[in-house]
Amino acid sequence: MTALMTAANLDVSLPMPQSPLQFLTPGRATIDILRDISLTIDAKTTLGLVGESGSGKSTLARALLGLQPISGGEICFDQVPLTTPAGFQSLRRSTAMMFQDPIASLSPRMRIGKQLTEPFVIHRVVMPDRGARAAQLLDRVGLPASLADRYPHELSGGQARRVCVARALALSPRLLIADEPTAGLDVSVQGEILNLLRQIRDETGLALLIITHNLPMVRHVSDHVAIMYLGRLIETGPTRTVFANPKHPYTQNLIASKPQPDPRKRRSDLAIKGEIPSILRRPEGCEFHNRCRFAQDLCRQHPPELREVSAGQFARCHYAETLTK
Ligand SMILES: Nc1ncnc2c1ncn2[C@@H]1O[C@H](COP(=O)(O)OP(=O)(O)O)[C@@H](O)[C@H]1O
Ligand SMILES: [Mg+2]
User: Fold this and answer.
1) Cβ < 6 Å from ligand 1: which residues?
2) pLDDT of 206-251, one tens digit each?
3) How many angstroms does the Cα of residue 58 sit away from the middle of ligand 2?
4) Residue 255 in contact with residue 246, Cβ under 8 Å?
5) Distance in Å, CA 58 to ligand 1 centroid
6) Ligand 1 mean position to 34 CA, how many Å?
7) Closest ligand 1 atom, CA of 231?
8) φ and ψ of 179, to 5 deg
9) Helix (H, G, I), strand (E, B), or coil: what is residue 159?
10) Where does 3-17+29-245 sit in CATH, by number?
11) pTM
12) Which of left, alpha, beta for 54 (phi over 0: left; psi -120 to 50: alpha)?
């Protein structure tokens, strides 16, 4: 297995939002959005990144692509650090991102065909027949060539996602990051988009990072999973291992509980009891302790490290080995 992208001990801190109560927390000018994230995406594999809203998934995606400044750690693409011009160039050329909101990520006043070939202009790739290339890209995602003349608002949600996939494929990336690729779509369309991503991965051998709060989807499509909580990874490992034998109580809860299908009745995106704490007020010790039914004094006092609990499986829990589900 070759590592295509690695992040080591990544931190992202952002300036504290301006607040009239700022004088209450003097000296705390920044908030930690991501803390100590280490992960590897192997070539030609799919990693599923799971976490509740606000846990930092999109921030991590942007950081991995060099779109979000990091305050600590190192990112390498193809073993080359992003801080070097060569590393950054190779990343820019070989990765593509599907942003969370597909309609918003398309330009409203530009025809689809032109949007599909824009990456060639941006990256100065010579493409004599752009029209033919746009038609070919549309065909690859199962859309008719006639869509090239349409504008984004004329598309259905599913079609817009497909256009985003097509645009992401324009420069034949080696890594595609898809942020919530099925959010807001009907269940049947969700399945179609996932199958499309899978099919493209199999055909092209690109690596996929799929970001989602949809656990069944991750189980279905990912080789590896990484579970995020309050800006930290709390469990990572091969999908089959983690689903068969989750070691972190949070992961155990996620897998055991059924999601509430009605979004209005959900207290959080993932079916788990209790509110996710704010990153502005991180709990002391293990940050999950206030929602954990196994919590002991040690958990309230000392933050656990992410450590290997079985071959290739890592969990951030003091008691990972002794918990019963
Ligand atoms: N530019 C920003 N400035 C301040 N806070 C931000 C910014 N972007 C994201 N955040 C905060 O960072 C946290 C993680 O956000 P995000 O990465 O979008 O999470 P997710 O994608 O998992 O829902 C949230 O609490 C959000 O409010
Ligand atoms: Mg997000």
Assistant:
1) 14, 17, 33, 51, 53-59, 279
2) 999 999 988 888 998 999 999 999 999 999 999 999 999 999 999 9
3) 4
4) yes
5) 7
6) 9
7) 14
8) -90, 110
9) helix
10) 3.40.50.300
11) 0.90
12) left
